[in-house]
Backbone:
């Protein structure tokens, strides 16, 4: 399998007394480095994991997240797609693929990814809201309202979803639900 290449790392991998010896350990090290903002070093860890196992789904996903961090959305899409091929049951893989597609203004595909993520884990209030925003952009008002309402079902104090839902109810002259 040929892996997509992101930018050339400007830094070397993080020095370590004991180097990880499994793809999962490299992934965990890379994730911690990414969370600390050490993107180039996190990328080195991800590549080390993939050298040991080209199909390590979490590491493929990590590489996609690193590409999003550096605004390389086309590469992120490739990495996320590979992660999904390895493990199609992880909601975050679909959420992040949807995010990259959204950034590329591929809204229909982004909506499908968000829908798959929500099918796998419907308790994601923020993703229901994000889906509603995309549906509203696509002028799919009734579906957007349902998505905002679902966000509120998951998290009743999601004020952005409440506001967006109320605005759409008002704009479509459906005042009763907006008044509740």
Residues:
């Amino acid at each position: 399998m040929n892996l997509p290449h992101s930018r050339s790392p400007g830094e070397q991998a993080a020095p370590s007394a004991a180097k990880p010896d499994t793809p999962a350990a490299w992934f965990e090290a890379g994730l911690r480095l990414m969370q600390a903002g050490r993107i180039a070093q996190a990328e080195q860890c991800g590549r080390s994991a993939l050298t040991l196992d080209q199909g390590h789904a979490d590491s493929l996903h990590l590489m996609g997240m690193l590409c999003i961090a550096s605004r390389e959305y086309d590469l992120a899409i490739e990495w996320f797609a590979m992660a999904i091929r390895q493990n199609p049951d992880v909601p975050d893989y679909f959420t992040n693929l949807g995010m990259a597609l959204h950034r590329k203004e591929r809204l229909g595909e982004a909506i499908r990814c968000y829908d798959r993520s929500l099918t796998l884990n419907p308790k994601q209030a923020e993703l229901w809201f994000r889906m509603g925003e995309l549906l509203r952009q696509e002028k799919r008002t009734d579906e957007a309202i349902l998505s905002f309402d679902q966000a509120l079902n998951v998290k009743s104090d999601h004020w952005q979803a409440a506001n967006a839902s109320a605005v759409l109810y008002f704009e479509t002259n459906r005042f009763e639900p907006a008044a509740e």
